[in-house]
Amino acid sequence: MVKYKRAVEEEKVVSDLVKTLGLSYIDTTRIRVVYSIGAKTKAIARIWAIPKAITLAFDLKPLYVIELVSEKFIKLNEDQKLRVLIHELLHIPESFSGGLRPHGQKVNARVVNRLYKEYTERKKTTS
């Protein structure tokens, strides 16, 4: 059975990534990060959007959950963890509509590496 635990520290990192990279279309108050324990997946992390039918039926704004597969994510170094979080954030469309972008032109290793470099350079200048 899979268990979930809220990852408050990683939510702070997500907020910092969004702010530092200027991803102003992302509303971090509507994103949560959780660790999954015991998930049977090859993924290190994945992002979930609340289905449109549910948000409409309950009159909710779009919500996203970034799931970090604990057994895999905790083994990564800090740079790799940042890249994974950047990758998951890239799946959120600029419309913040509740949908998800597929892998492709806007979600790929090249874009992740560019944003990671921007992030680390900006953090150096603000430290």
Question: Descriptors for this entry?
Answer:
globular, single chain, 4 strands, 17% strand, 4-stranded mixed sheet, Zincin-like, 127 residues, 43% helix, alpha+beta
Give an overview of the whole structure.
It is a single chain. This protein is of the alpha+beta class and 127 residues long. It has one domain (3-126): Zincin-like (2-Layer Sandwich). It is 43% helix and 17% strand. The protein has five helices and four strands. A four-stranded mixed sheet has the order 1-2-4-3. Helix 1 packs across helix 4 and helix 4 (78-90) packs across helix 5 (109-126). The N and C termini lie far apart (43 Å).
Write a brief structural summary:
With 127 residues, this protein is an alpha+beta fold. It has a single domain, classed as Zincin-like (2-Layer Sandwich), CATH 3.30.2010. 43% of the residues lie in helices and 17% in strands.
